[in-house]
Structures are given as structure tokens and as C-alpha cells.
Amino acid sequence: MILTLTPNPSLDRTYELPDLERGAVLRSAGDRVDPGGKGVNVSRAVAAAGGRTVAVVPLGGPEGALLARLLEEHGIEVAGVPVAESTRVNVTLVEPDGTLTKVNAAGPQIERAAAEAMLEAVRARSADAEWIACCGSLPRGPGPEWYAEVVDRTHRGGGRIALDTSGAALTAALGKRPDVVKPNAAELSEAVGRPLATVGDAVKAAEELRGRGARAVLASLGADGQLLLDETGTYFGTAAQVVARSDVGAGDASLAGFLAAGGQGPAALAAAVANGTAAVQLPGSAMPGPADLDPALVTTTTDIPVDRALGQPT
Fold it and tell me: Which residues form the Carbohydrate kinase PfkB domain (predicted)?
């Protein structure tokens, strides 16, 4: 079982538009609503693969009730924590060439009692969890040290934790030695305070995060591939080029695949790349199932292309 904690979940509404014109009345060619938030997406990907997952989420208002119902319809066990303000609604506009325009709401204020209730829900439901995935931005209320407290309590309870966040929350948690951190290229650059021009720069930045406490770093470099640095070695994974439909939730699908495959070594990295590659070919924030995966597209190696420029055609 993989337990996820998403302190700022959402309802994600996606509209596919023939064209995005400011100031016009636009008619959608297709639309959908999905339960959203990074940890929620990890749970959705685990459930889509046939695994068991529990989602710890704050729920407020009719939006929160709909979020809980959608999660249950996806086969996800919901550990909801009531909050006073409504769960946020995010909107994504998708153009035919794959360009995304996103409007993300701030989300509800989380009071101290609700923040503590989320920590208690994680403790109460994590006894049989192989991994706890703590994902996404912090809502209004908890300070950046809150994720550090989640990591600390997880380890005191004997569990393993993967942390997918950024900024001050990531920095504060590193000293508690999260088992895996999962930054993208921009978040990795922010964490070390310098630009990353090449894959080699990304490797050095990931090594720095390990030196600051992270036991493993799974770094998504977008179309350039993914890096894994853990106690078994340094690995680089890529996939053959595919036609991307939406990259919303692709990183979350990657993390789900990585954890479900054991969360260590090149086989887990290959699963991460395969799941992320499958996710970008699906609409909105749809999560891939086994039928969507094509492991033949994926290559992993210890021969790191350190001189390859990031953001350039591969």
C-alpha cells in the first residue's frame, strides 16, 4: 500500500479549446473534471495500476465532497480531514498543439488543528504502508517546517517517505533525511541557488541535495529524461519521443511508478520514465494504467551524458 498526503488538493477542470483567444467567448471541444493535487495524482496512478492506496486530504465545502466521491470512484481509500473553507478548483486550458494555460487557486486556509489532524491521519493509516508520498505545495497556514515534521514523524514510526515539494518546504525537510525527494529541473535549480545548463549540472545539484540530507534524488528533466541518485549509484533514464497531449500530472505518475517498483535502482527509474511517458499521451490529468505503458520506449544507463544541454532537442 502507498499512502499519500496532499495538504492542498484540488478539483482539476480541463477544457480542450480549438483556439485560445483573449476576450472571446470560447466553446470547449472537450472537458473533464479530475481529482487533483500532486499526492492525489500519485494515488490515482497507483490505483490505475491495480495497487492499493490511501489518500490523506483536507476536504471543505461541496468541492471537497465531490473530490472525495471522485477519489472513491477511482478505487482510492479516502482519509479526509474536514476544514472550514472550500477545497480549491483549478482550471487548465489545452490548445490543439498541446500548449497549456493553467489557473491554480490558492486553496483554503488550514488552521493548526486541521494541520495536526492530517499528521494524525497519516500516523493512523500508515501501519501497512510501504511508502508515504508527501506531495505538493503547502496551503495557507502551515509553515515551511511542516513537511519536515511529516518526515520526522514518518521515520520515528519506522516508515519510508518520498517528498515532492519545492522552495523553503523542501529546504527545511532535507535535514530530516527524506528517503526520496523528487524535484523537477526548475525546483532543483532553485534548491541549489544556481542555473542548470547541462545534465552534468543537474547531477551535481542532485549530489548536493544528497549531501544536505536526501537519501535519494529522483530528478525530472522534462523531455531530457530523468536522473536517479541513490545509494546504489547514479542512473539516467530517457524515453523515445512521443506525441504529448498533456503533461499535467506526468511527474506524479512517474513518482507512483517509481515507488510501486521499489523506489530504488535502475528498475524503479525505468518504471518512473515509462509511467511519465504514458501520462503525457493522455488527456488532462488522466493517469496511465498497465495497458498504456510501453517499457520498450525506455532506456536507462549509468553512462550519464553530462555535456548534454538541458532544454535542447535530444
Answer: 24-286
